[in-house]
Amino acid sequence: MKFIETDLHDVLIIEPAVFSDDRGWFMESFNQTRFESELARLGRPVPKPFIQDNHSCSRKGVLRGMHYQLAPRAQGKLVRVVKGAAFDVAVDIRKDSRTFGKWVGVKLTAGNCRQLWIPEGFAHGFLSLEDETHFLYKTTDTYSKDHERGIRWDDPQIGINWPISTPDYLAPKDAAAPTLAEVHFSELG
Of the listed 137, 143, 147, 184, which one is catalytic? Predict the structure, then answer.
């Protein structure tokens, strides 16, 4: 399992070792001990344990995000695509961070087997690049409607370079999300 640093200090790309032969392939998609030891080796904090798994399926052109939850229900997310492809994005919303308002995007596909670790303090979203894109999330807290928040997917201050200019489908709550400048910073901790 290889951990790759991104431009956002705490967001990491994880490439599992994939073993192939005539039968097909095998990979270890998650190992708690290895995950924690690699984070520690890189000087990153070990998150709360994962307590919920989510699975979404999206058609091509669906944009989901940019979502986060407020403390005390903030979520860290370990995400991957098991069928199809997605452009996955994390935005640093930690108001005291040197990378506040910056973003990183990674193409996750069933073929590349990459995962993205997004700790608490980041907004998260993705654009489905193929029909029938299956996206898996491991989260460090359960969903809480009262703590759920979002920021605009096309916030000009953040300037995410999405692979398309306009998504084919965007949930009404995502279309109505505030910009980062409109978010009440007292909520961000």
Answer: 137
Backbone angles phi, psi at 70, to 5 degrees: -80, 155
12 φ/ψ angles, rounded to the nearest 5 degrees: -130, 145
Per-residue pLDDT reduced to its tens digit, 30-67: 999 999 999 999 999 999 999 999 999 999 999 999 99
If one looks up domain 2-184 in CATH, what number appears? 2.60.120.10
Q: Which residues of the chain have pLDDT under 70?
A: 185-189
Q: Please list the residues that pair with 178 across neighbouring strands.
A: none
The helix (run of H) or strand (run of E) holding residue 137 is strand 133-139
3 neighbors 14 (Cβ within 8 angstroms) = yes
Instruction: Spell 174-186 as b/e; 16+ CB within 10 A means b.
Output: beebeebeebeee
Largest CA distance in the chain: 56
Please state whether the predicted TM-score (pTM) of the whole model is above 0.90: yes
- Asked if 124 is an active-site residue, the reply is no
Q: Any catalytic annotation for residue 137?
A: yes
Which is it for the CA torsion 44, 16, 105, 146, positive or negative? Answer: negative
Residue tagged active-site, from 55, 67, 147, 169: 67
